[in-house]
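User: Predict the complex with fe (ii) ion.
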Amino acid sequence: MTTGRRQIATPLPPLEIDRLAERAQGCANVRELQALLEQLPPSLLALERFARFDAGSASGFALFEGSVQIVVCGWLPGARSEIHDHGGALCALRVLSGHATDIRYELDRDGLPTEVSRDVYLPGSVIAYREADIHSIGNEGAASEALLTLDICAPASSPRSYSSGAGGAS
Ligand SMILES: [Fe+2]
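Assistant: Here is the predicted structure with fe (ii) ion placed in the model:
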C-alpha cells in the first residue's frame, strides 16, 4: 500500500524553445528580439502550466538557460521587480496574460533613478529593452488577475539593481 504521497512532474518545455533560443542568439538588436516575441508559435503562447507565483515578487521558471535565457514569469497582484538594468544584454518580454505596468527610469546627477515614464501593457504586447535601459515591471493598479510574461535575454543577463533612495547601482 502506498502512503498517498504524490510526486508532481515538472512539465517539459515545448520543443520550439530550442529553436526560439537559437533565433534569439542570432538577434543583432532589440528590434529583432522584439519581432521574435511578436511572432511566437501557438505552442509558446500557452505556457500557463509553467507558471509559478510568489507573493510580492516575480517567480520565474526557466525554459532555456544557456547562451540566452528564456523564462516564464508569474506575478501576483502587487508583485513588482526591483529597479534594474539587464547588465548589457538585449531583453524583451511578451505579456501572455494579465496587465504589465512598466516604469522606465533615468539616472539623475547623483546616480539615483528618476521615473520618466509609466505604461500599462495588455496581453499580446511585447516590451523591448535596450542594453542601457533601466526599469521596473509589475502587476499593479486595479489588476486583480495574475500577470504572466515570457522573458528573453540575449545573452543571459546579469542585471544590476538600483536603489531609489540612495546609493545607485548595486
Ligand atoms: Fe527587466
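The first strand starts at residue 59 and ends at 65.
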